[in-house]
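Title: Request for sanity check on ABC transporter prediction

Description:
We are preparing a figure and want to confirm that the structure record we downloaded matches what your pipeline produces today. Could someone re-run it with the sequence below and paste the raw structure tokens into this thread? We only need the token string, no images.
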Amino acid sequence: MLSVTDVVKSFKSGDQTIRPVNGVSFAIEQGTFAAILGKSGGGKSTLLSLLGALDKATSGDVIVDGVNISKLPDGKLTAYRRDDIGFVFQAYDLIPNLSAQEGVMLPMEFAGVSHAKRSERADERLNQVGLTEEMHQRKANRLSGGLQQRVALARALANNPNLILADEPTGTLDDETGEMIIKLLHQLAHEKETAILVVTHDQALAGQTDRKFRVSRGKITEDTPKVRA
């Protein structure tokens, strides 16, 4: 489903060539919940940007469902980000004056989904992540951090993406709320057959994933995969 082969990202800094991602290869199937760990500056965030088509690799291939996004023109990359990828950020990045429902409807509007269908699907996604009907109409800035992260997950699921990329999704949450988000990510990956890849420092989160990768100095290695029941 996601196949990364010999991916390099390089740039010049004075007389030096910096390679924050340097020959990375790995693959993830649908329905897999995976984590990428590593120290700051090791290349995790750069790799996430390449997978999400926020940046282009200098060389190598990033293939999602048979499409090599490393070779797509910018116009098609916009459609890829909109239709095939769901993003979840540490800071939630919700629009404060929109209700939870309106926030989840927004990416569907950009995708050309009708208003009636946007409303229906937004409610379905919010129910899926555990928000009550009453909370659907509550403004984002009136929700707790844990609830805002649930709305962010619902928004990421809005256009039925093949891949969800999450950058430190539990980073600002307390332990109990973080644990709830971890369980929710695990459930979404396995029940919806969605590939979910998280970049995290959270060992509790990483310990509950199906696969665990480590990035250091631009290289990637994988811990021994867990056997799924």
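Thanks, this matches our download. The chain has a mean pLDDT of 89.
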